[in-house]
Amino acid sequence: MNRRDMLLRLGAFSVTFAAFGSTGWAQTPPTGAEGPMNGPGNPLAAPWAAWKAAYLDESGRVIDALQQGASHSESQGYGLYLAALFGDDAAFDAIYGWTETNLAIRSDALLAWRWLPGVTGAVPDRNNASDGDLFYAWALVTRGQRDGDAALMDRARAIANDLVAACVTESPDGSGRLVLKPAAQGFERDGGIVINPSYYMPRAMRDVARATGARALATCAADGAAIMAALAREGLVPDWVEITPDGMKIPDDREERNGYEALRVALFLIWSGESDHPAVTMQARAYRRATATRPSTSDSAPYATVFDPRNGDVIEASHHVGYSAVAALAECAASDVPGSAIPFYRTRDQAYYPATLHLMALIAQITATPECVPI
User: Fold this and answer.
1) d(C-alpha 142, C-alpha 82), whole Å
2) According to the model, what pLDDT value does residue 296 have?
3) What are the C-alpha distances in Å from 280 to residues 18, 60, 292, 311?
């Protein structure tokens, strides 16, 4: 048995312990990329249950407490995909039902981006968010294909087609590439287009394109990876980028930072099987440098979350352990050394966003980088 095969076998067991601190060992690995992780050996069953208990209410609303208790198409899309992946039909049905009632209120098939509790006009802005739409469609495809559900597939197809129509457009730099706008309105200015690189999830874009026939999403995924590679040649991928006829720059109304938005870039690339992407390499280098200077004697020391994209200096840090899971995954995926420092999964003292990224990092580890077994 070679080293990688050994790690593959160990991964199915070791991740169980790392995921939720259990002394019980999984007997079989999860089904992985092409099916729900819903078997008796699912190592993420307890983290998923903890996530639901912390952030999903009985109505199917995923609550982001730090954002005024809002629910948004991102949280609903993330939650719906996780439910589809884990084969949790009850959670899927609840999330789907709430979202269709409260956010599927536009004239097209896309979702309004945010719902606010306890206010008149809970959806004051019906603009969409393309990442929320993408994950929502991915979830519908995942369950629709599993169950042979034509209605879910039709809904996914409508979203994919309208996402392409509203948010996929040709880059203004003359390259011929397709770019993904963050929303249908508000991101085109003076001949340029503002993008958020973390809204690209290549695996989801490819899967949805393949299942629905919206081929432009797959092209956009490849072009987005090329854009991020170009950005990585200059440093860390920024949260926001404006593509102009003359090239790329930081939008005038945005800070130049690699932060809470861009930290999803490496996670989504790794999850998509692109661990060798330059953006992952650059992000891992920044995390490695930050880890080297973090006090090793204190578990309470904050984790680096915001960097200067030019020089990699740490601008901001957080105590939410989910951010360290993304960092540990990136550090391992970009190295030749097996094993990662992904911490135990917990929702205690974690907000919705870092806890969700933590769970996603564990999924990416299992499905895309089995050599990055938490140790």
Assistant:
1) 10
2) 56
3) 23, 34, 18, 16
Task: Please give the Cα distance from 303 to 287 (Å, whole number).
Answer: 9
Those residues with Cβ within 8 angstroms of residue 147's Cβ, 6 or more apart along the chain or in another chain: none
Give the per-residue pLDDT at 120.
87
Amino acid, single-letter form, for residue 86:
F
Interval 294-306 mean pLDDT: 74
What is the model's pLDDT at position 295?
A: 63
Give the pLDDT band of residue 25 (cuts 50, 70, 90).
very low
Q: Please state whether beta strands 192-195 and 241-244 pair in parallel, antiparallel, or not at all (unpaired).
A: antiparallel
Residues 305-326 have pLDDT tens digits of 999 999 999 999 999 999 999 9
Whether the per-residue pLDDT at 111 is higher than 70: the answer is yes
Rounded Cα distance, 170 and 197, in Å = 16
Query: Which of 177, 183, 228 shows the shortest CA–CA distance to 201?
Result: 228
Q: Which amino acid is at 333?
A: A
Residue 302 host element (H or E): none
Domains of the chain and any CATH numbers: 3-368 (1.50.10.10)
CA-based nearest residue to 176, from 251, 128, 129, 226: 226
Question: 69 near 117, Cβ under 8 Å?
Answer: yes
The Cα–Cα gap between 362 and 94 comes to: 24
